[in-house]
Each structure stands twice: as C-alpha cells, then as structure tokens.
C-alpha cells in the first residue's frame, strides 16, 4: 500500500472517530425535547456530554487538517463546492457550543428555552448535512477539467443525498439516546431506553435503504460486505438496548457508525470525489494527493501523536464515567 492510499484510509479513520464521538453529542442535543420534561432533566442530559463535547469536536478539525495536507485537491474542491452546507455546519456548531455555556446564566425561563432550542438545532443541522455531504461525495458531483464544482446547492439536495442525511440524523439520534441511557439512572434512563428502541427501528429502515441504494449504484465487494456487517450491528444494538444492556448497545451503535463509514469509503475507493458528468474529471487518490515527502512527514507525525491523543481521550472518558442523576444537579 502506498502512502497516498494509506492516508485515504487514515482520513476515513478520523471521520469515523468524529462521527462516533460527536455523533452521540448530536444525539443528546436532539433528545432534549423528547427526554427533557423539565429544566433539571435537560441539565442532566447536557451534563452527560458536558466534560467531553468540545474534545469530541476536535476530531473534525483533525480530519479537515489531514484532508488539507494529504489531499489538497480534494480539500479545495470539497470546501469550495460544498461551501454553503459546510458553512451551515460551522454556524450550527458555533451556536451549539455557545448555548452550552450561556444557557446556565440564570436570566429566566425564556432565556434558557432559547438556548435549549439552539442546542437542538445546532445538533440536528450537522447531523443532517454531514450525511448529505458524504452521500454527494460517494455519488459524485459535476466537475470541470480543473476539478471545479459546476452545480448549485439544489443539486446537492438530491433524493439520494437527502436519504443519506436522514440516515445520519436518525443514526446519531439513536446513538445519542443510547448514550443517555448509559450515562443516567432512574426515570430518565428508562425513558431513554424506550426512545432508543423506537428510534432504532426507524433507523434500521432508513440505514438499510441508504446502504442498499449506495451498493446498488456504487458498491464494491468490500462495501457490500461492510454494509451487511453494519446492518447486523445496528439490529444487535437495538436488541441489546431493549434488554437494558446499555454498554453493549452503545458499543454496537458506535461500531455501526464506524463500519458504515468504512462501507462508504470502500464504495468511493479509489476515487476521492467522482465527477458525475465525466469520469475523466474525477479526483482520485493518485491525482489529488500531496507529494510523497509530505505524506512521509505526516505519517511520522501521526504515528507519534495519534497514540497520545487516543490515550488522553480514553483517560478523559474514564474520569467522567460516573452516571448522572437528578440528585446530582444542584438547585438554581
């Protein structure tokens, strides 16, 4: 395997880390209207991700930086052609982050509800648009010989991409609600488990439709096999959740996301962004990658830094492993 191909899969790994970790953040944020019956419930939900949400978001920065350094042509085409959706994701993430900090300022019920609404929207918009973006990457977009995107925003909102967005929205929601069941106790834990079962059943249908469409149109043997594994993992996650095995269910939803992203990258390989109007204009691993020297330096940096980052993040989750209950929330 050459370094360019290696970095294609490393970029995929970083996006898997981001979708698994920030995915349950998005799910917790979207669950506020469903599980937060009062302000104490909503504070319990927010506190489940309070120590880790900002750390989880750093994965998208690492993924974007790796994409820029390893595949500058891919980065340029993606961020110029998908400028508006990516800008909406950025604004939503900013609004969500601000809301986590400002909702606790104690300026009244209206103030708190306003920022709670921003958390919900700031979680749902990225969960939807990341699916839309990756579906368009796999499907391909119209490009000229200079790899400039020729379409419009409406071209990106095609049926396949919208199904991809609905799938990531539902998958992250289920992933997040399972995390709530894992991190809480009492009545809110029971409600989260029931909601995760219902959401999981809908997610199975949407994910199956999206992966089947993907493989029929763009699939390889590897993507077919990975899609089948993802389907089995998701069904097993829903069954584990129904049996109140939250830890197992959360591990299975995380594995579902990871394997599903691998299936998308396998369907994409060896392209990084196909041209739907003319295959000759497609970006591939070969014509989009940086020089061998750049990739070599990046490989050494990743080999040294990545284990440290993973160890630090694992330690953070271990420190904050305790369940959150209503009794632990101080009165305001």
TrEMBL record:
The keyword Transferase does not apply. GO terms for molecular function: electron transfer activity; metal ion binding; oxidoreductase activity, acting on diphenols and related substances as donors, oxygen as acceptor. It is found in: Cell membrane. The keyword Metal-binding applies. It is a multi-pass membrane protein. Keywords: Cell membrane, Electron transport, Heme, Iron, Membrane, Metal-binding, Transmembrane, Transmembrane helix, Transport. This is Cytochrome d ubiquinol oxidase subunit II. It comes from Cnuibacter physcomitrellae.
């Amino acid at each position: 395997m050459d370094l360019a191909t290696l970095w294609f899969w490393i970029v995929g790994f970083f996006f898997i880390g981001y979708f698994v970790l920030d995915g349950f953040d998005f799910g917790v944020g979207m669950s506020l209207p469903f599980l937060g019956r009062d302000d104490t419930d909503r504070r319990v939900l927010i506190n489940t991700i309070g120590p880790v949400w900002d750390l989880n978001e750093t994965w998208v920065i690492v993924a974007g930086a790796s994409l820029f350094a390893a595949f500058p042509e891919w980065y340029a085409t993606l961020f110029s052609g998908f400028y508006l959706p990516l800008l909406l994701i950025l604004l939503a993430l900013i609004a969500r982050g601000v809301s986590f900090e400002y909702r606790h300022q104690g300026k009244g019920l209206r103030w708190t509800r306003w920022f709670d609404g921003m958390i919900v929207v700031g979680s749902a918009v990225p969960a939807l648009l990341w699916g839309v973006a990756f579906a368009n990457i796999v499907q391909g977009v119209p490009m000229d010989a200079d790899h400039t995107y020729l379409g419009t925003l409406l071209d990106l909102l095609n049926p396949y991409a919208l199904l991809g967005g609905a799938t990531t929205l539902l998958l992250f929601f289920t992933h997040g609600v399972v995390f709530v069941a894992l991190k809480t106790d009492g009545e809110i834990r029971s409600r989260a488990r029931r909601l995760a079962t219902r959401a999981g059943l809908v997610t199975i249908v949407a994910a199956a439709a999206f992966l089947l469409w993907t493989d029929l149109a763009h699939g390889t043997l590897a993507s077919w096999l990975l899609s089948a594994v993802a389907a089995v993992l998701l069904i097993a996650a829903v069954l584990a959740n129904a049996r109140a095995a939250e830890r197992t269910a959360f591990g299975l939803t995380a594995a579902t996301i990871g394997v599903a992203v691998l299936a998308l990258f396998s369907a994409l390989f060896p392209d990084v962004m196909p041209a739907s109007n003319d295959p000759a204009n497609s970006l591939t691993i070969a014509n989009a990658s940086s020089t061998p020297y750049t990739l070599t330096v990046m490989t050494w940096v990743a080999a040294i830094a990545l284990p440290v980052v993973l160890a630090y993040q694992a330690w953070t989750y271990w420190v904050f492993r305790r369940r959150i209950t209503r009794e632990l929330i101080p009165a305001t």
